[in-house]
Amino acid sequence: MAMSDTPDIIYTKVDEAPELARASLEPIIRAFAGAAGVSVETRDISVAGRILAVFPDFLTEAQKVSDDLAWLGELVKTPAANVIKLPNISASQPQLNAAIKELQSKGYAVPDYPAEATTDAEKDIKARYDAVKGSAVNPVLREGNSDRRSAKAVKAYAKANPHRMGNWSKDSKTRVASMPGNDFFANEKSATLTAAQAGGASIVFTGKDGAETVLKKGLKYTEGEVVDATFLSAKALTAYIEQALASVEPGVLFSAHLKATMMKVSDPIIFGHFVKVYLKDFIAKHGAELDALGWNPNSGLGDLEKKIAGNAALEADYKAVMASQPPMYMVNSDKGITNLHVSSDVIIDASMPAVIRAGGKGWGPDGKEADVLCCIPDNSYACVYDETVEYFKETGKLDVTTCGAVSNVGLMAQKAEEYGSHPTTFEAPADGTIKIVLASGEVLHQHDVEKGDIWRSATAKKAPILDWIQLGIARTKATGAAAFWLDKNRAHDAELIKYVEPALKAAGIEIKILDPRAATRYTLETMRAGKDCVTITGNVLRDYLTDLFPILELGTSAKMLSIVKLMQGGGMFETGAGGTAPKHVQQVQEENHLRWDSLGEFCALGESFNFLAEAKNNPAAAVLGAAVDAATQKVLDNNDSPEGKVGQNDNRTSHYFFARYWAEALAAQTDNAALAAHFAPIAKALAENEAKIVAELHAVEGVPADLGGYYLLDDAKVAKVMRPSATLNAIIG
Description:
Helix content is 45%, strand content 17%. The strands form five sheets. Strands 2-1-3-24-23-4-15-22-20-21 form a ten-stranded mixed β-sheet, sandwiched between helices. The radius of gyration is 26 Å and the shape is globular. By secondary structure, it is α/β, with parallel strands linked by helices. The longest helix has 20 residues, at 16-35. It contains 26 helices and 24 strands.
């Protein structure tokens, strides 16, 4: 499809609970939008879709799919873009492997992932898969910076209907432990490139013998681009984990909080170090046997348990070592799933806010809550959680009925600060040096490394930085209190400050520039005082803070409004986080009840219509958008959002009420007579058939649901599960 033929709105096809919800909500959106002549189409950015798109040469003609992510990547660089982006899986290696296995079982002859690629063919396959895993979608689509905040209706509802907050004790033993040094923060180097330095570059490893290996070639840097490089010492990491384990007090849980999905190279390795230290004695005794079984500590305890199953001696020694170590923070204590089972099970931006919201408590292997030692190695970000924990120890839990709203302006356009998905993270193959070499031969950054150290680089281009600063200024003027979260003692942040200070001076505005620890306290104090506050941050902090504060304020981050003003004039509207999506899918599979809340989708939809109205001078779209906002407010006011148990309203029921209120708002408005006339009978039918529709929706619950898969769903089966009301379907069309 040519860009000139672009639909008015693109709605993304994704994974897990958001994808199930899409199967119910999107038909409603299409029907309502179509009545106003607004076209809505879907593009597939799911893990399965991304895998199939990069392996057309392994598929039959009937199995081949378009590369929708690449298409969207071009679209977002144009003014025509209007994308509603649902949260997709940022696949960890275990998730990628599971998706591959499922596709193969369904007759798709995609290759296995070659963990150790030696031939050119294997290297090609590995490169294609590596482009799929991790945070592969966001860097492609985010051609603008992030403006993320709670919608007024959502914030008002949260104040009137406060979620449960755990009580904090001043003598809580919960604390955050970070590395004492030799981490990514301590070793970071950064430079802003001159015109003479712009151009090509390579990343080169030089061994002690002088032999050079090009780790990455073909890099392109531009004038004004901020280029960083840093590394984390593997020896220092091991020593830190050993010390942390030894320091766990009785009754306290041990935990590691990483993000192996986004930091797809570094954090699985760091996770593996935690596993190796925790099982140190077991590995020392059985290393050869474990190697023979093909177990990699990076794959976690879950994979180990599968590989040693049935070996009585190994199982007994494993059980003994586990019992000798401090008890672990659990993902699912009922099923024995620990913090170290799978690298993607404990994701810092969801797990740490959950501990903090619970009053510093986590679930232990005994099924009871306890204080937690939270290991966050990197001092670049650990201080945020440390300061938050210490703040609540001092002040007690947050009063969500009176607290202000915390929004975020995040630097992320054009892959800014992409430490995770940027293909410039490497595990040092031996002792030596790793350096960035410019086309001129100049060595921009250089580090002495030891075997196993984790080296990484990231960049931020000038135009996105300047755009981010201006967006921060605009949001500050609209909100009031704000701060740039930048540490003058961190190499990268010091370079950004060189851009920020002149821009603030030129704008004639004063905005605080605070290091993350000070900014955390400033923000917490501001929100506790009932005032709103803008956090203006880099990319990783954007990711972390847009879960931390919403989970404290609203009980969830899935209800946030996320607007990405694309730099070429288009718009992208993100619908919230998907951190609990796997558990939601499991509940559907077991008892056909989906508790996923589509409030984020409702908010994004309204913004998308409003953007369309302005961008294409479409008054009918404005009417649709205003009616969406009214419907969203009514869903909240009437408590029609999903609940957790069978027999209660779930996602499908909330969609019925949303459609009804949307139709009623359209029928009642006077700006567009044709739309009012069209939706009047629809609104009447939806209202008159409420009891019948709700009964049909509830009738299917309480029994297992067949979705036809997990990563590659069967569309017909999903439609049957997610659209079970014949009455509703007949009215909507």
